[in-house]
Queue: 3 jobs
Job 1
Amino acid sequence: MDSIDKKLLTIIQKDFPVCSRPFQELGEQLGISEEETIKRMKKLKEQGIIRRLGGIFDSRKLGYKSTLCAMAVPKEKLPQVISTVNQYLGVTHNYLRDHDYYNLWFTLITPSEVNLRKTLTEIERETGLKVYNLPALKLFKIKVNFHVPGVEGERGIV
Amino acid sequence: MFSELDKAIIRELQEDLPLVPQPYKVIANRLGINEEDLIGKIKEFQEKGYIRRYGAALRHREMGIKANPMIVWQVPEEKIEEVGKKLAAFPHVTHCYHRPMLPKLPYNVFSMIHAETREQCFVLAQEMAEAIGVDKYDLLFSEEELKKTSMKYFIED
């Protein structure tokens, strides 16, 4: 990654142009051609740095329900529980976290509250473990763009 | 609430944008509408807030941002609003919510931070704690990412 790549990533994770020739517009901001912009995007995609380029939707505004779930899974049951949980399309994130009791944390998005309850019940039945449901009582922030290391500009308080 | 066309557009926009000079034209062709109408729809969805962000989702681990703890805070009920807002103002905080407490995790404000190292996270947590005046907190670092995908909407109907 050179400084143009980093600048490119910083721009496109905030706002990708919505116009007829978006890569031309991006190229103008970066001082490179449309062709080179596309080439760089392809490379960043192949390297796995860009996971996806597209719309990130507000699940609530689309009428979906989302929640955060925690489970306390004994070590020997982890592989089975992880595969059960991960098979759900609505489970978008799943992490092992270092807590001495609640070690598995996943997010779940479903088309309705009924569907959400049903999914949690299914997971409990299949794993024999309790799923702790922690729906947001209030949302204060979602901002999923990162400071690209090495780029001047928005910096955290370090 | 959403027309069949709206749903079809959302199904396309949640996939990857083709890396070609006129990507919206490619998608519009697939939908049987014209490019300008699609661009208009995307802007409309952005204005209405259906699209929270149109752009790239990055794998932050690949960029060297390897520490992403969930920092949980024990906040008195009457201070939650104020604390939530203060935490949200920190640039490193990507998510912040008020959530119910768990029996063995008695914290009610959940924040996610992303940083390059664990040490940085501890320093940040300390600074955040001082800024919000809350000293009961815990950091739950992720040990392993088991799944990370983007949600696919309107695919079951």
Note: Confidence is low (pLDDT under 50) at residues 152-158 of chain A.
Job 2
Amino acid sequence: MPEMNIGDFLVYLYDLLGWLLGVIGLHSSAVSLLQKLVAGFVLANFAMLTPIFTIWLERKVAARFQDRLGPNRVGPFGLFQSFADIVKLVIKEDITPVGADKVIFNIGPVLAVMSVVGIWAVIPFASTMVGTDINVGILYSVAVGAIGTLAIMMGGWASNNKYALLGAFRTVSQLVSYEVPMIVALLVPTLLAGSMRMNDIVAEQQVWFIVAAPLAMMVFLVSSIAEVGRAPFDLLEAESEIVAGFHVEYTGMKFGVWMLAEFVHAFTISALAAVVFLGGWRGPLVDQYPLLGAIYFLTKTYVVYMVLLWIRVTLPRVRIDHMNALNWKFLVPLSLAVLVVTALVGKAVPADVSAGGRALVLFLSNVALAVVSISLLAGFSRKLQAVEQVSIDSSGAGG
Amino acid sequence: MNATPIIFLVVAALTLVAAFLVVTVRNLIHAALWLVATLFGVAVIFVLLDAGFMATVQLVLYIGAIAILIVFAVMLTRRVMQDVGPQRNSNWWLGAIVAAVFFVAISSLLWRTGWPALPGGDVGDTVLALGRSLVNPDQYVIPFEVASVLLIIALIGSIAVALPGKQSE
């Protein structure tokens, strides 16, 4: 008798659904279409219901960082606060501003959520649990995410509000430019795994890619935080500068949908980082029980999410010129350097070296690269300070 | 029954309608957004052709970068909310001639091309085959390198144009 495998439970359910549909006399192509629709429905709802928990988590953790209690009235530990918020958002008045482009105004938030939820189609929860394992998985995640930029522009423009339009303009300079280092950083794990298929990338990580490519992971995390547009890169909605940015005219649940998109996006990039750099579903005993992989994957995702929270509540907002300078003068050159070094070192290491040895060599090359870039930055900073000192001295002499 | 021809017909029809709307709607932003819809339709057709890589590149480059730059440029250049400009200027007949010539050229080219039947069944890893063919001296390495050099020239040229001159300091 074959060993009962709890990891195949969902696969079994999937097959059962197919068998049931076959029994009631549907054509096989219709059956597989319905199976895929149901699977997609479940997956999308998993992604969209997660924020009910992560919003609570975020508020609680942020409160702890700021020496407050956070939500503690609704339910145990304030766990049901998100439900109260949802009810509040739903019963609020839904206002469409005068002169707004109604259709685009309404499509905007939906497109934003769609672009984020679409990424979950290629994220492997376990070796057997993946929506669709296409051979361009990594590139697909970037491509679908790019639609989110368009959604924000549509929302900002259609609102017929100057602040909203300014928010949309900032979006272009931020999201489009931070896409460059993000894509280059994702090329490094692609190079190491020799595939863009998500499951192949996870399978190649006998040693997690965070060891072989720590700099690439750093670049990826920084540029993804900018892509989500949360602190310290929340210039899209800087309250003190442009009111609330692109969603200033949105009310009620439409505003809620924008928030949903942001929270799902933050969770999604945590999941991407966990899959690409932290070994995804890999962990002890995962060969016998594939379902354990999903638990490992979600644990790693939440660890990355906590790091994002930590960054969010600790750092102040960057200025807009610093934001652009950080991207074009630091992240882009660094990511290109990491890519070239990884390619050269990866080829230089003989093929018979074990995965651990290869990762160690790559790690040392990353450390060397980090030392070089930090010393370059220090020199640049000293030069900048000298120039500022001169200008202070000269203005003091003039006055 | 195979569903692919039906999906193709629906997607192709939607793409054509969107492309038609790009040149007929009066609002420039709407035209740009219909262009996005057209490009998306082309991406779906790439998927139907088993060219997943081309489809995602179509999304990243054309929707993620080029379409957004077009929308951005339109937003910056005119007050699109109030101002609906004329759709034709005095050079419309020149444009019509160029479009007609281009249409004849393309359709005659399509007419004369022999369409080889695709090998049926599993075609293997198309991304791997594409990558190999781009660096294979017997296949496409020279066009690939020429395109790269062209892009580098464009990049350096745009930096040279954007660089502040000496006199402006």
Note: Residues 125-164 of chain B form one domain.
Job 3
Amino acid sequence: MSVRHLPAAPGLGFKPEHFAAIRSTRPDLGFFEVHAENYMGAGGVPHAQLRALREEYALSLHGVGLSIGGAGRLDAEHLARLKRLCAIYEPESFSEHLAWSSHGGDYLNDLLPLPYTPETLGIVCDHIDEVQAVLGRRMLLENPSTYVLFAQSTLSETDFLAEVARRTGCGLLLDVNNVFVSATNHRADPRAYLAAFPLAAVGELHLGGHAEEALPSGPLLIDAHGAPVADPVWTLYAEVLARTGPLPTLIEWDNDVPELPVLMEEAAQAGALLDGAEVRHARAG
Amino acid sequence: MLAPGEGHDGFVAAFRAALAGGALPDGVTAVGEAEQRFAVYRNNVAHSLTEALARRFPVVARLVGEEFFRAMARVFLAQHPPASPVLLDWGAAFPGFLEGFPPVAGLPYLPDVAQIERARGLAYHAVDALPVRPAAVAGARSPEVLRLVLHPSVSLIAAAWPVVSIWAANQPGADLGSMRAQGPEVALILRDRALEVPVRALPPGDAALVAALLEGQTLGLAAARAQVAEPGHDPAAVLGYLMGAGAIIGVEEAA
């Protein structure tokens, strides 16, 4: 069987603590997504579980450590590890972030922001060209959630992403929660951001929960992935689907992970909106 | 710090310095409270790496307490940041760090406990290898020429303290009152057929035998060393344990 794309259905981030429940209940999901870096050991439980999962579900391999927005060259060893994983598991999708996470040989384990300038645009495009050449496949690039902005930026994030997609041919992963988090943090309009987003390049959507702190100048939202998807994010998601039609949609919940049924409720909510989008698009078509 | 004029390299270097507590990089803007908003990045880096370290060394974390571990992790992070996005490789320097960290000098067994946890991490992720069938050993020739190849997950940690007992007493659900061990212990760490990673204390004869097998010595020589370490030693029990766990992956004849 060779499925080339993720199905336009809900997926979940795979958590090892759910493995037994997944095997016994075989939940109705379009795909599972895993963080590539968690499967870069040689053997043992992680690979045994991923092999078993792979037999029954489509797979999205999601990298968090390539530092595509970093200043230096990409880590060739890390890229080789990703290539190996792609060769073993043949994921339907590989995605990474518009962010940097390494500096001077040290790994910082966070998705850090960059100014959007002609210089960084060139760097990011070169890095994505290299990733796609080494992996021999098209990748998806995810929009970040950000907490500060940079006076150096001369391009908007949406123009930057559109230009990256145009120059490199990569697809985009639109994280709707990140859009809401960033817009709230920068007192901007998430709908204006989505109106400017190059939706035709989107190959996957992410939904996740955020945390909120009150600051004198306004709320600070943090992309904590430890809560249900917030209502305004569901609304934005439905609005995106109305424009794009159904797309593979991941529920991300990485911290304080609840039991599988709680995640399945989130997935079902996404599924209902995906079904609605399908009906509307069928009528429009 | 580096000026924005120095390009992306300068920007990243200045951002990194700010993560470590330095002044905010030039050009950072926010709707207000720029320091507090930038601090989300500082917290993410420190918190996520501290959590990663605590996941690799849960017994060390339990022994020193959560708050102390967090503070100690910050010191370790500053000295030994991960050199790769593959965090499961990170932490090799932690036992040595503990040895030279004065605030934990009162817990002299802590570096050895950390060694056990490090070895368990390596065993958990070690390369897969199929165990031999019992018949392969039963049908083999004289122990003088027989070599048993052990699974890549197998390792020994010889400690000056009863570290296996300490480790076991600090597992979830363990009874701390049951800890009576004193004196040195040798820990055998391996990944078993269920892909779990038990830790077992070996008596001196068993430890000498496994150490010799890990060196690639013949079973005959390994048994002889066990006799020296523990006169009257019977290798059957430890070999049975290794076989049962699936930790013998090859039977070779020495040339």
Note: The two ends of chain A are 29 Å apart (CA to CA).
